Amino acid sequence: MGKVVMYSTVSVDGFIADENDQPGPLFDWLTGGDVPLDDSGFVKVSQVSYDHTRPYWDQIGVTIVGRHVFDLTDGWDGKPPSGVDHVVVVTHRPAPEGWDPGAPFHFVEGVEAAVARAQELAGDRVVEVAAGDVGGQVLAAGLVDEVRMDVAPVVLGSGKRFFGPVGGQHLLEDPEVVIRGDRVLHLIYRVRR
Prior knowledge:
Strand order of the largest sheet: 7-6-5-8-1-9-12-11
Order of helices and strands: EEEEHEHEEHEHEEEE
Largest sheet: 8 strands, mixed
CATH superfamily: Dihydrofolate Reductase, subunit A
Helix content: 10-25%
Structural class: alpha/beta
C-alpha cells in the first residue's frame, strides 16, 4: 500500500489561503519559473523545484479533498488535477445533481473511509491528502505517514490553516528533505509514530 501524504503550499505563518479561500501570492513559485511543471503551459517553476516536485506528482494515484475544495474548484470539471487518477471527496452530501457518475470522483463520509477508499484505488501509489481541515482530521486520526510543505515567503496573517483546527500535539521527525527553490522552500517530514 502506498503512503499517505498531507501536502500543500503554505505561508510562513501556517496558512494555505486567506479568509476568502484565495491563495494570493502563495503560488508565485508555481508561475515564476521557466520550466513547465505540467502540460498546461501556465505552471512553470525553477529547475530545482521541478526536480523536486515532478517526481512526487508522478507518484500520486489518488488525492483526498474535502467537499469545500471540491465545490470551490467546481470539481475540476470532472477531471482530476495534475494527472491524478482519482479524487476522493470527504462529504456528508451526495454528488452534485447532474454529476457524471463515470467521472473518477468518489464521495465518501468520514476521513477513515476516505483513506481506506483512496488506498484501495491507489494501490502502491501515493495517497495525497489536501492540507486544511480534512488534512488535519486525517493527521489527528493517525493516518498520515508524511507531511510535505512548499513554504512560500509570505505572511498572510489569518485564513485557512495548513493543519486545520487539529487538536492536540502531533510530532514530526526532523525534516528528511529541505530544498530551496525560487520563492519557495520544499520540506518533507515523516510523522512520528
